[in-house]
Amino acid sequence: MQKKRLIIGMTGATGAIYGVRMLQVLQAQEEWETHLIISDAGVVNLTHELDMKRSELAELADVTHGIKDIAASISSGGFKTEGMIIAPCSMKTLAAVAHGFGDNLISRAADVVLKERRRLVLMPRETPLNLIHIRNMAAVAEAGGIIFPPMPAFYSKSDSLLAMVNETVGRALDMFGVNVEGLYKPWEGM
Predict the structure, then answer these.
(1) pLDDT tens, 17-59?
(2) Are the CB atoms for 172 and 40 separated by under 8 Å?
(3) Helices and strands counted in the chain (H then E)
(4) How far from chain centre, in Å, is Cα 142?
(5) Complete domains list, the chain, with CATH
(6) Residues near 180 by Cβ (< 8 Å), separated by ≥ 6?
(7) In 11-104, which residue ranges form alpha helices assigned H by DSSP?
(8) Contact present, 85 and 118 (Cβ < 8 Å)
């Protein structure tokens, strides 16, 4: 049985926990194969925010690609994936994706996902937003990408930071058909 492939990109914005948690959830599911790319700034945040090393992160992924490896399998549309999530997504990466500037494997893989009409989800982490950020988000959305800021929903009355992260991660992964049962409780009305 061919596994479904999902690319996870992690960049230098705050919020490394989102990418880590996605990899943990996907690692527990046999039908998914993850392809990880992390930028150098992403590694800095991973270390600062979670006291985690690049090697520990790599253990959560099925395949890890170097940020400069633009000849990697995921840089070609012929390599079939379900799509890509960039979590967290820096404003630099957002700009690169918005303008088709494939200068590294994260932005190149995102460009491939868009050109192949696969699902691309960007989780930008910045506030407040300036007009350049907003226009770049609009450009990505117009190209078919999904802008998914990791904003907690308070109606779920989460009792911990992990529960808020799980809800965001669950909602994002659900967009790809990942089994997220037990990760969060979807809104069912009052």
Answers:
(1) 999 999 999 999 999 999 999 999 999 999 999 999 999 999 9
(2) no
(3) 7, 6
(4) 19
(5) 4-174 (3.40.50.1950)
(6) 25, 169, 170, 171, 173, 174
(7) 16-27, 40-50, 54-58, 91-98
(8) no
